[in-house]
Amino acid sequence: MATATTPIFVKLQDQLTCRKCHNLYTNPKTLSCHHSFCQECIEGLATIPTFSVACPTCHQHTELPDHAGAAGLSLSTNVQEFKKIYNELSSGEVKCDNCSNAHPAVYCQECNRYLCNECVSTHNKWSPFSGHTVNKLSDVKAPTSPLDGEVELQIRNAFSAAEIRDQGERVKEEMMGFTQTLMAGIQEEFTRKLEELVQMRLQNHREGRNTSYLVWPRETASYHDHDDILFIKNSSKEFTISQHVGNVMSRVDLAQCRVKEIVTITHIPEDREVSFRLSIEVSDYEKSLLIVPTSSIFIGFKSQAASSPVIKARVISTDKPGVYQVICTPVIRGRHQVNVRVSDVSLQGTSLLIPFNPYSYLFRVTPARTIYDLDRPSGVAVHNDGRIIVSEYSPDLVSILSKEGKKLKSFGKGVNAISFSYNHGIAITKDGSILIADSNNHRIQKISMNGIPAASFPIGRSGTGVLEFKYPTGIAVSPIKNRVYIADSKNHRVQVLNSDLTFCRIFGRSGTSSGEFNAPLDIAIDSEGLVYVTDQYNHRVQKFNPDGVYMCQFGSEGSGSGQLKQPAGIAVDNAGLVYVTEYGNHCVSIFTSDGSFVRSFGEYGINEDQFKNPYVGICFDSDGYLYICDYYNSRIVVY
């Protein structure tokens, strides 16, 4: 009988051992490269936000199935067959191959089958089998047991495939080593040619000739991730970099280059500066960036909203060709025009949002203005055209204000068949519609800016199932796939809807552990799609990836630096800073995206720099102004 010490059993165990945890497979799954690992090991390899896995053996990437993750991967037929054989070996018992009930007594060499005494009698009577050689198992010397013979027969083909695959892996590793060596040589040669070209262009410039500019294919900024790094596209033809690096551009062509949109910035607190990355797209070269010496680039900023001097910026090269680090010290926040010149040629510029900067206020944060004539505002959003949409809790209304804060119209109380009961959070969809958390009616409403309810709305009802809610409060629309995230407060969870407002997923449950909630109130989503949730009675903020996988948390109950008391509203600016209103501490606290405390401002009171229970309702407009619902003071304070 085969045992765990026989060579065939040991070899089989090796084929069923996970190369990540080095234990026998637990719920094995197979990647697209045909390597198998435990499901838990694969989940530990997943990267965010791409949700793909790099195989530990061959480093090939496999994209995980949407919503299912590693659990959605299949299992290869080879591994399935190995597991079946292994289980039979482990059980230590073999049955008749014909009836599968009795123990085998003989072995037919032609049929390669084990037969019991009853079945062998029938076998010998049939004319097609009557001439077969049948040996009693008691007379068989080799293999040493009937089970070993069966195992050798069953796994011969399977091991052949596995050995072929192992040979392929060895060849793949050799090819990877060769490729890395080749790429290192290409990079060294390319760098040398590039330096020669730059020196030649600078010499031409000094001699008064037309300046030449370098065109760099954007894909090479991450050359190790792409197969086509040796080519750029021009007039539908492909050319090697060694032939066409440094394509000469005329001044007319250069003027057609455009600065890419600037989405995010970074604060430099100690110097009160902001920093961001800038690149210049070349219009005639598909997916290409312009690369020039930083000394030839001039960048200036000017506020679009106020008369202010042009702010000059420092330009620093980065490790990515065609990408420049820009540092400046803004004197005013808001939308700025970015003007870029390369060797005195003006390019097509872009705009930059300088947000509210908590680092620049050493002593006191002063509001820019205050909006009155509201009744307990409990949700706010700002349309791209500047109009302000506000939930008013006590009168059960949604009001639309002008950019200056003048009330234009209100919806609710049966107007256009719209009614609310204790409405809270507000969000604006990609098509400009308004989503409202109709809290006490346990549903979500969608209306146009003109107050017309959308078809098939409202959605939801009281309950704990899919598309059922218990007092939903906060609502947010993600820039990733335009999904809608809803704080289902009294169900202690977050419901996620697709862009068409069909059900997508649920995450969270009642509790105090990571990923659990005690009355989540509001949701904010950053530019990468990461989700921040205020966990009111756990006195913390929790951070999740777009699929609701827990990442981290910050805050604890209290009134000290970095502590929170009944966090309510939440918003994220374009610098990645997280702003949290505290219902219990009557203030706003600011954190970095990883939860490091920056500062807080506000205290209990009715003055312009004080709050009285700020609740759900905090957001930024497109010019970087911060809107805060000061609930019991019945006003919105703008910073």
Brief digest:
The chain has 639 residues and is of the alpha+beta class. The chain contains 7 helices and 44 strands. It has 3 domains: 7-169, Zinc/RING finger domain, C3HC4 (zinc finger) (Herpes Virus-1), CATH 3.30.40.10; 210-354, Immunoglobulin-like, CATH 2.60.40; 369-376 and 426-638, TolB, C-terminal domain (Neuraminidase), CATH 2.120.10.
Keywords:
alpha+beta; Neuraminidase; single chain; 3 domains; five-stranded antiparallel β-sheet; Immunoglobulin-like; disordered N terminus; 31% strand; globular; Herpes Virus-1; 639 residues; 17% helix
Architecture blueprint of SSEs:
Blueprint: H1 7-15, E1 28-30, E2 36-38, H2 39-45, E3 52-54, E4 61-63, H3 77-91, E5 106-108, E6 113-115, H4 117-125, E7 134-136, H5 146-206, E8 214-217, E9 231-234, E10 237-240, H6 241-244, H7 251-255, E11 258-259, E12 266-268, E13 273-281, E14 288-291, E15 297-303, E16 311-312, E17 314-317, E18 323-328, E19 334-342, E20 345-346, E21 350-354, E22 369-371, E23 377-382, E24 388-392, E25 397-401, E26 407-411, E27 423-428, E28 434-438, E29 443-447, E30 472-477, E31 484-488, E32 493-497, E33 503-507, E34 520-525, E35 531-535, E36 540-544, E37 550-554, E38 567-572, E39 578-582, E40 587-591, E41 597-601, E42 618-620, E43 626-630, E44 635-638
Antiparallel strand pairs: 1-2, 3-4, 5-6, 5-7, 8-14, 9-10, 11-13, 12-13, 13-18, 15-16, 15-19, 17-18, 19-20, 19-21, 22-44, 23-24, 24-25, 25-26, 27-28, 28-29, 30-31, 31-32, 32-33, 34-35, 35-36, 36-37, 38-39, 39-40, 40-41, 42-43, 43-44
Helix pairs in contact: 1-3, 3-5
GO molecular function: ubiquitin protein ligase activity; zinc ion binding
Pfam families: NHL, zf-B_box, zf-C3HC4
Domain RING-type: 18-59
